[in-house]
Design goal:
mainly alpha, 2 domains
Length: 107
């Protein structure tokens, strides 16, 4: 019986209205029927300021409580920030490819 598709949960109109207010009109649901966060700040789409804040917090923790655990947390925060910066730069470069070939003349 495991091959049959799972039945989707029915959501009342009032609850759906609340969900759309919070998650947007284009809300998507996971396999368990829970709304999925989308947009800036959602998991996997954090802005650079998020990673910088995590690193800053870790630096403060190391400054005032230099334990091995806090030092490891700082190293992890730094590597996550670097990875996010590289991914951000890669996506920015993709959009700029067409701009280099075009030249405009001004009168």
């Amino acid at each position: 019986m495991g091959l049959l598709p799972k039945k989707k949960k029915k959501i009342s109109a009032a609850k759906m209205k609340r969900i759309k207010t919070v998650f947007g009109a284009d809300v998507k649901f996971d396999e368990k029927g829970h709304p999925i966060e989308q947009g800036i700040g959602s998991p996997g789409n954090q802005p650079m300021s998020h990673w910088l804040a995590l690193e800053k917090t870790a630096r403060i923790d190391v400054k005032y409580n230099p334990t091995d655990e806090n030092k490891k947390a700082l190293e992890e925060a730094q590597s996550l920030r670097i990875k996010a910066a590289e991914e951000y730069a890669a996506t920015e470069m993709e959009g700029d490819e067409d701009d280099d070939d075009e030249e405009e003349e001004f009168a």
